[in-house]
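Why do we bother with a discrete structure alphabet at all? Because it lets us treat a fold like text: something you can write down, compare, and reason about line by line. To make this less abstract, here is a complete entry for ABC transporter. Read it the way you would read a sentence in a foreign language you are learning: slowly, and without expecting to understand everything at once.
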Amino acid sequence: MLILEADKIKKYYNDRLIIELDSFKVYSGDKIGIVGQNGSGKTTLMNILSKEIEPDEGVVHHYCSISYIRQFSEEGVEAGTKTLKEFNLHDKLHQNEFSGGERTRIKIANAFSNDSLIVFADEPTANLDYKGIELLRQKLSRVESFLLISHDRNLLDSLCNKILEVRDGKVKLYNGNYSSYRQQKEMEYQHEKQEYEKYVSEKEKLEEAIRERQSKAKSIRKAPKRMGNSEARLHKRSATEIQEKINNAANSLKTRLEKLEVKEKPKELPQIKLDFSLTNPPENKIVISAEKLNFSYGSRKILNNAKFKVYNGLKTALWGENGAGKTTLLNLISSRSDDSIYIVPKARIGYFRQGFENLDYDKTVLENVMQDSIQTQAVARTILARLLISGDDVYKKVGVLSGGERIKVSFAKLFVSDANVLLLDEPTNYLDMMSIEALEDVLCDYEGTVLFVSHDSKFVNTVADRLLILENQAITEFEGTLDEYRLSKQKPKAAADKEMEQIALQMRIAEIIAKLSMPGADKEALEAEYQRLIKERN
């Protein structure tokens, strides 16, 4: 069933065409993820499709009701008691102030309190912990259709059957989830690369053939001085004819060269060549540690006799629910205000926060990055290019950049500074998918120590070598990835389930044995059942 359609949509900002969509239809059962770089127009497209804003050209038709989870909106509580309980909000209605995670949960609860056939969701995981994200995933999985803007790749993988890419004003639909989309994009890249290499090869062959013919035409000798007049005339006529043929062939090749379709070289990210020795890195195995760490907000206990270690050169993720104390711990380490936390003398800490306190808005990107850099400008520009800021964009004033672009400049400043221990608080917030993947690559190549907070499970899985789990006012260390940690949590439950199965089997076997001794029993059938159960138990 067709539930939404858009036809010949165009939207301009001033003279710039930011969205062009020829035809787009949503049918019942379509679960569509929308992806694209920061500033590409994803939210604008969703607002057009939801009729929040009018396109400059074209029309949108709705054939059902719509619920919309907006990224930037302040909403009161509208959901019913049952939905509020699901989102753990029923006992917080008396509050005057809500945390970022609670505000997001309110917006989600409001949207799902309506029985709409389609849900629009713009970055609905913002400020949610992993439990909130899982609850959102379950809710969306039961919706008939949705359009979802998200940088959570696991969410897009587990829920979506189509991906809509917004790029350079154009909109393109791919079948499959996010991983399938990435595979298709890689195939497109490889095809473009082959086409470019074929173009370069053909161009070089044509240019070489033209040079050979031009050289051959010039090399045809004039008639010798001692040659008679009649012979000289014959030689000259023959030479002229040969030169004309060669020049015609050369001109034909030039025409082919001019008509050769130009193929652009696909962009490839430069490799980082960071001289990490300039940061004078510590040689200690453990660079940060704590024993009997306590911290409270008034009467509310956050950490109680907690202990942890951060190992040199490893990437460690802080994992836990909202309010467990992850950002608090980063702040305590950064401020060096608690004597329970030991930091080795040679550790130089760089701290990424969301506030952009380290940026000068009146200076250019490159000026900001080079301000405290111990690396060369070439290295700084390589880091920026890896973070998808390249070319003349490095000369833009930071004040005109988007939030996502400013985040990338902040990262670049850290990477080229003298810091050898990085603290990162929710580094993927406000970054588009490509930028998150670029940041993953840079962090994996980074030789220093990294301690970070993130609720993006895909990001944590890719970057982190180990975890510090914050729960129940304590910190538990886990050596391994997030997937390995989750698997270890499932094993005890699986073992308990297996034990219950064995008990049930043993009881059934005892029941069969008892029936075998009863008069009139079908001993053949019971014996067969007995042998089957013994085999299953073993």
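What the structure line is telling us, in plain words: The radius of gyration is 33 Å. The domain at 2-176 is CATH 3.40.50.300 (Rossmann fold).
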